Amino acid sequence: MGANVNVERAPDKVALAANGDAARRATSGVSAGASIAFYVLLAASALAIIGTLHFVAYVVPTEATMGIVQKIFYFHAPAGYAMYIGATVCFIGSAGYLARGTQRWDSLAKAGAEVAVAMGLIVLVTGPLWAAKAWGVYWTWDPRLTTSLLSVLIYIAYVVLRAFTGDSDAERKFAAALGVLGAANLPIIHYSVKMWGGNHPTVITGKGGGLGHPDMKMALGFGFLSFTLLTLALVWARYRVDLASARLAEIEQDALEAGIGED
Length: 263
Fold this sequence. Notes:
Layout: H1 2-25, H2 32-58, H3 73-100, H4 103-134, H5 143-164, H6 169-183, H7 186-196, H8 214-257
Helix pairs in contact: 1-8, 2-8, 3-4, 3-6, 3-8, 4-5, 4-8, 5-6, 5-7
């Protein structure tokens, strides 16, 4: 009698095991070649950051007016650019999820939002340190500062929403709508100085930042390169982790439905 029960349940368990093995083989979401590419990107970002730190500390001259505080700029501006990248990734993932409703798009949106928050916080920490020396105050409601703060708060709201609410399709779509809305603020941040003025300098297209020496401009370029590589590595890592977590949850749910692990 017991043997018959085992025989009847065996096909379901074998099928579930086969599906679980297939899912486990795909948990990384990428091929072996892509995994190698990820580690290469990670190593390149680490080397770029170390090289930038060395170049800024030992090669770039100290700016005459602001002194050593000016060197914050080589990380402040690239961090703002990196926040744009994370926010753009969140927008693409959110739009993709609203259109397709698949896990990959949702994981991409979450990864972009988390990286946007991390880079945005770097901007909000380094900016006041610069402002205290340049303007005499840590914070002023400058148009670019205000819109940047608003953008960071939007992506913090996205991350909190995904962390402390359910994972149903309705909640995912609400978060995706927030991710799309957050991207609308990016052009406002970029053009806020031109539209409304304020204290914030326009360094890339105008004067500001104390980039009078060629090594200073090179340091800024290195900063943009290192933060770009770091942002791509972080987005890729968070995407892989979230995708693997979602697939593991699916396997656990399939196991419960098949009666495995209910002892």
